[in-house]
Amino acid sequence: MSSQNPLPRVTAVVVAYNRRDLLGEVLDALAVQTAPGLDVVVVDNASSDDSADVARAHGVRLVSLSRNTGGAGGFAAGMAAALDMPADDAPEWLWLMDDDTVPTPTALEKLLAAVVDTSFVAAGSRVIWTDGSEHPMNTPREKPFVSKAERVAAARRGGMAVRSTSFVSMLVRTDVVREVGLPIADYFIWNDDFEYSTRVLRGRRGLHVPASIVVHKTRALASTDADPGERFYNEVRNKLWMLRRSDSLSPAEKALYGASTLRRWVLTFVRSSDRAVLRRGLRRGYRDGTRTRPRPNSLSLAGLSVTDAVRAVEGDRG
């Protein structure tokens, strides 16, 4: 970043659900970021613990939802709330993370240094686990079909060109958010960040920034093909929704990622200790993924405190 230019306005959006201690750790880490002036919005997804009280004690902006909308709905709500302010005060970037994502002190500074005054509209951090090893759940992959010019531009910023990134530390430019809309709340969990980041980055540039480091404090060091149990339903339904209903990927990309998905599902079945649960999830997910479609966010998030803010960002788009 040039010292001649003012620092961009950034709002962190943290989605919280029943992890009060981790939430406190995340908010403590956000409070000591070396990039100054960070605003924070916490979305309490109808937690049954005192996560909301933790957010209040840290003096951040709190959005309390009366029902659990999952990670997808939580980010849609939090992003809309973050943008619901006068234009002169609105953030230029949103920094998205779950309540088990603990950023190191320079995480935001390094993201901004890589993307400000460039054509990159989104960026993700290097994600490690509590033992310092790379987290396999959030391992970045270079953008397929990337041009030499884009690869070189990414390398010059100390990063790698990517086609997608995760909500475990995703920085996204707010003018693009207003253009493409919010995450799809009906996804609830799984593939919401994949669909959203590929939608943001279709025809635009994204960057993985290894100098920006966050710790993803999951219970175990597991990859995306770990046994998901009942949640396999969400994986199947949402991936089919994405491949059939979303315009986030080109036809060629849908073929590429579809084949990759089938391979990962096979590995998931092979490694599962309860394949009957996965078969049930596969049947239900296939049924709902092919016979239904996600609702517009104005319907999914109707009756909540952020409903008007959601409509202001994206209207009734589906």
UniProtKB/TrEMBL annotation:
<dbReference type="Pfam" id="PF00535">
    <property type="entry name" value="Glycos_transf_2"/>
</dbReference>
<dbReference type="InterPro" id="IPR029044">
    <property type="entry name" value="Nucleotide-diphossugar_trans"/>
</dbReference>
<comment type="similarity">
    <text>Belongs to the glycosyltransferase 2 family.</text>
</comment>
<dbReference type="InterPro" id="IPR001173">
    <property type="entry name" value="Glyco_trans_2-like"/>
</dbReference>
<keyword id="KW-0808">Transferase</keyword>
<protein>
    <submittedName>
        <fullName>Glycosyltransferase</fullName>
    </submittedName>
</protein>
<feature type="domain" description="Glycosyltransferase 2-like">
    <location>
        <begin position="12"/>
        <end position="177"/>
    </location>
</feature>
<keyword id="KW-0328">Glycosyltransferase</keyword>
<dbReference type="GO" id="GO:0016757">
    <property type="term" value="F:glycosyltransferase activity"/>
</dbReference>
<comment type="pathway">
    <text>Cell wall biogenesis; cell wall polysaccharide biosynthesis.</text>
</comment>
